[in-house]
Amino acid sequence: MVSHSGLITVMDRAARKAAPRLRRDFNEVQQLQVSRKGPADFVTMADRQAEQTLFEELSKARPDWGFLMEERGEIAGDPSKPRWVVDPLDGTSNFLHGIPHFAISIAVQEPSGDISHGLIHQPLTDESFWAEKGRGAWLQDRRLRVSARRDLADSLIATGIPFLGHGDFAQWTSIFAAVAPEVAGIRRFGAAALDLAWVAAGRYDAFWEGGLKPWDVAAGLLLVREAGGFVTDFRGGERVIDRSEVLAATDVLHSKLHKLVAGALRG
User: If you compute the radius of gyration of the chain from its CA atoms, what whole number of angstroms results?
Assistant: First the structure.
């Protein structure tokens, strides 16, 4: 059994407390007629109830910590203490359409802004991907490493595609046009937290997306880094959360992808 900190235990317990309700709600939404009102309202309720469960469990464990949450926004805590960064349902559109690919994401952000702990839990597969800064990345009790592929031509890349009201279509199109001809395939599964967890697990070789929120990426970027990968913004800098840009890959592939992305952004 792999030993981990008490914080990871707290995060895992909170996620597993919220997971059964999400599983039940997912089974319900699959039965609902897809209309603009019913399923969307139902999913919003599922999202908020999961967030409430996580809020209660995490507050109980660390009552003086603040929160940054998708639905509730920022909740102030002791500024000298870390805060929780929480996405109760990453992959909401998948959930709404009965697609079994979504996750709970929880991260600990230190007062310095660094992410020190991260956990991504997939309720349907019961997979918990977790990482602690300086202690590696894990799937349950199995150590994770990014893939060993070195050539773009052999690599499977994940992305997120802009959609109505979200993202920069021109920027994404330029990057896609530069990357697609060089790689073995590109996938868009619709849950950025899981995309990053899968890069850490070696299932994907790299991932890029713009327009992401802190709760989408906080846990995942730590997972990739602790699994031996590199995560930067599109400029190759460290301001992933500030710039809402993520380029995550193995060390060798990151430099190759960054050249393509940088070239696309220069036009």
Answer: 18
88 phi and psi angles, rounded to 5 deg: -75, -20
> What is the per-residue pLDDT across 72-131, written as a single tens digit (0 to 9) for each?
899 999 999 999 999 999 999 899 888 999 999 999 999 999 999 999 999 999 999 999
Q: Which residue has the tokens 């994907």?
A: 204
Q: Hey, what are 17's tokens?
A: 């407390």
Write the single-letter amino acid at 151.
D
Q: pTM score, two decimals?
A: 0.94
Q: How far apart are CA 56 and CA 18, in angstroms?
A: 10
Q: Are 43 and 97 in contact (CB under 8 A)?
A: no
User: Please, is 134 exposed, middle or buried when counting C-beta atoms within 10 Å of its C-beta (0-12, 13-18, 19+)?
Assistant: exposed
CA dihedral 257, 259, 264, 266 (to 10 degrees): 150
